Structure prediction request, 261 residues.
Amino acid sequence: MMISASGISVERGARTVLHGVDITARPGELLGLLGPNGAGKTTLLRVLAHLQETTAGTVLYDGMPAAGIGRRALGRSLAYLAQSGRIHWPMQVEHVVALGRLPHGTSPAEDAAAVARAMAAADIAAFAGRPAGSLSGGEKMRVLLARALAVEGRALLADEPVAALDPYHQLHVMELMRRQARAGLTVIVVLHDLTLAARFCDRVALLNAGRLMASGTVAQVMTPARLEAAYGVHVESGERHGERFILPWTRRAAPDIPPRD
Prediction:
């Protein structure tokens, strides 16, 4: 599913959160949304997932507006993973994952098979019968990722899916996201880890203060100058086994403040 957004603006009271953003996500690619805290990444992801109203602009799914597709059909096509990692329901893990099947209305056998596939992919099959509330924050995030995978939609939108995870599962989840893209899904991921973005994303979009600074390949967008301008840090970068790594190294010096009289 191609997702195309044009002229997206979002206002909250007197504050403009997004300023005329244009972005396109294509099937078969992993698109990373980057930028500092407050850049508008989560708001943009929610707009693309049809969960956030806009002040201006349009979002098309394979060239059609959401109204032309219908809520249920869109729910079968779009899977969304929020960043909170909170599970509010006193349910067993497998029942939380099964919530991803609600838009489908398929047979119990088909739903069970999809849930099993999702739990295996997210590495949580061993948790199936455990109460979701008994899990750690990182384990809960993987349960919610499995719920999104259980949708088996055509697009997967994930907001900071690795933020609460240990290094092993950070790599596991990013490898999974890349496999989903290679299988033909449109995958959009909000990330803060610059190295994970550089290694796994096909394209990235860099946001700052609600504006799109740049979008394109990692080489085109993640330059030292742009990263310094967006994040206020100097970076160190290099390659290992043909893959790029980027490390925030020092903060940019604060501007000189004249002494008081």
Remarks:
- The domain at 3-251 is CATH 3.40.50.300 (Rossmann fold).
- The mean pLDDT is 94.
- Residues 122 and 165 are 12 Å apart (CA to CA).
